[in-house]
Write a structure and sequence with these properties.
Blueprint: H1 2-9, E1 12-17, E2 44-45, E3 54-60, H2 63-70, E4 78-85, H3 90-98, E5 101-102, E6 105-106, E7 111-114, E8 136-143, H4 150-157, E9 162-170, E10 173-174, E11 183-185, H5 188-194
Parallel strand pairs: 3-9
Antiparallel strand pairs: 1-3, 1-11, 2-3, 4-8, 4-9, 5-6, 7-8, 9-10
Length: 201
């Protein structure tokens, strides 16, 4: 009975983190944090999404679920829209797919595709750095681990620095129509998918 009561009290939410918001609830320097948007008690971010990155962040009071999301052994796919400097050629895309060396460690294989059209996204409050004679391109990248600033480091390693980064999915949980700063409770099927056994790649 106690276990059932505990399970019923657990809360997990999907949040569209805006640019410039720290992925925590307090900041001594007074910068924007999750507390400015989320008033749900006892939930904490499961995984990283840096201040200058945007998009899907899952917050939960369920420690087991948080471990499933963050543990690299679970190989949970995380999907990003990535705006990069210049247009990557086939060689650069292949390198990203096969994995790149970061600080002496090779990243796992990834799924990467060059988008033909620019995705429809809300304007960022701080525009990306603009260089008149340097074109930009958008990639969709799916990775299965969460090294610190991994996507940014991967694109930089193949000569295409990241200008804007938006996470749009974690496992079967998608950002959907959440606007920046909005959140929703996760459905039971979302949680079941996140809690399922590790994938094989």
């Amino acid at each position: 009975m106690a276990e059932l009561k505990e399970a019923m009290s657990l809360r997990s939410i999907a949040f569209n983190k805006p640019y410039g918001v720290l992925p925590c609830f307090t900041d001594p320097a007074g910068r924007p944090t999750l507390a400015d948007y989320i008033k749900v008690p006892d939930v904490y971010a499961a995984g990283r999404l840096d201040q200058d990155s945007e998009g899907l962040l899952i917050l939960t009071s369920d420690g087991t679920l948080a471990h499933r999301i963050t543990g690299p052994q679970h190989k949970l796919p995380k999907v990003y829209l990535v705006q990069v400097e210049r247009i990557p050629d086939h060689k650069a895309i292949t390198q990203l797919c096969q994995g790149v060396e970061l600080a002496g460690r090779r990243t796992r294989t990834a799924k990467v595709r060059l988008l033909i059209e620019e995705p429809s996204l809300p304007e960022r409050p701080v525009p990306i750095r603009f260089r008149k004679h340097v074109p930009t391109a958008w990639l969709e990248m799916t990775i299965h681990e969460g090294m610190n600033r991994q996507v940014r480091r991967m694109t930089a390693a193949v000569g295409h620095p990241t200008l804007r980064l938006i996470r749009i999915a974690i496992g079967a949980v998608h950002l959907g129509d959440l606007k920046p700063g909005e959140w929703r409770d996760l459905r039971e099927d979302d949680i079941s998918d996140l809690s399922s056994r590790p994938r094989s790649f």
